[in-house]
Amino acid sequence: MNDKISIILPIFNVGDHLRGGIDSLVNQTIGNENLEIIMVNDCSTDGSDKIIDEYAENYDCCIAIHHEKNSGAAYTPRNTGIEASTGDYIMFLDPDDRYTLDSCETLYRAVKANNAQMAFGRFRRIFEYGGTVQKSYSPYMDSLEQAYPNETFETENFINVPDFIWDNVLESIIYGKTIEGTYPRNSPLDTIHVDSIEQEPDILKMHPSVWSKIYRRDLIMDNDIRFQPYVSGDDMAFALETLLKADGIVFLNNFMCYDYYIRDLPSDKSITNNVNVRLLDELMESYIYCRKCTEGYSKEIQNISVNPHLLHWMYTWKNSPFTKEENKLLLSKVNKLKKIHKTDTKTKWLLSSMTTAIETKIYTSKE
Length: 367
What we know:
By secondary structure, this protein is an alpha/beta fold. The chain is built from 13 helices and eleven strands. It has helices at residues 18-26, 48-58, 75-84, 103-113, 144-147, 163-175, 217-222, 234-245, 277-293, 299-304, 307-318, 324-340, 345-363, and strands at 5-11, 35-41, 62-66, 89-92, 98-99, 118-127, 132-135, 154-155, 191-194, 213-216, 249-262. Strands 1, 2, 3, 4, 5, 6, 7, 8, 9, 10 and 11 form an eleven-stranded mixed β-sheet that branches. Helix 2 links the parallel strand 2 and strand 3 (62-66). Helix 9 runs antiparallel to helix 11 (307-318). It starts with a strand and ends with a helix.
């Protein structure tokens, strides 16, 4: 193998999960001599800094970088890692998760064989304390039951309704009708390969996970793509920009490349588990940024890249207590998106419903 893959890890107080994340990289089937594992410590206070120094000392492929000042979010260490990387390809890992052991090899072979600028696979959402496993959403039929006969997958479902209602009603409402593209939707598919996102806009319906993808270096560097300064939504913006600008995209519909752990005990906290007004504020800012990125693209791409996320935002807002002033701030951000995102009647109705709900909460508040 003549190429090298840089894998970037943003690290802040990862605790007991850190070693498992790094071990899933140094034990990759592709061989860690073909990897450059860049671990960027964002001023951890729990000993994570010492752990990555240990790996850097014991493995030639591991590089430890220490920030002098905490940035408060993953986007800064991710960008630090991009600037420090030297690999021909770039990947990302959230260090409390895991790559499946053949992820790097399988994704590398897919992107290389198809001369594409990016490739990605499916991921498992593992509810560590609930004992359930969900398969990540795909608009294509799959054969995962045959590919993983010992696994029982539930349908990804972020608003906690019965699977039957989700599969037969809400999924089509949230994600919209299937857009006919290059590939059929009436039989299982293993590999989807397109030259550009315009050929298969439905790809944008999938989770904007930067960690399930491999990127050719020139896609990121030549287009000056970096993580935007949002505590939440930076990955969504990065994933969208790469998909819009990629010359060649490969999706492996039957390959699980990543284990995304849902740790929901009160003692096991993360930024995204700790919902506050800043998180939803910056998440909406990321939607606004993404909508601006799609100017000049088709109406389908403009809608798909934003609309499904709006229901997730509203579900999170509805289940989180905010003050009257905080709701006023969030309303102003939704109205900001509303001014630029006027693609069709359904979109206008969706945004109007959001503003009405927040306005009602403001007007009925006793504060």
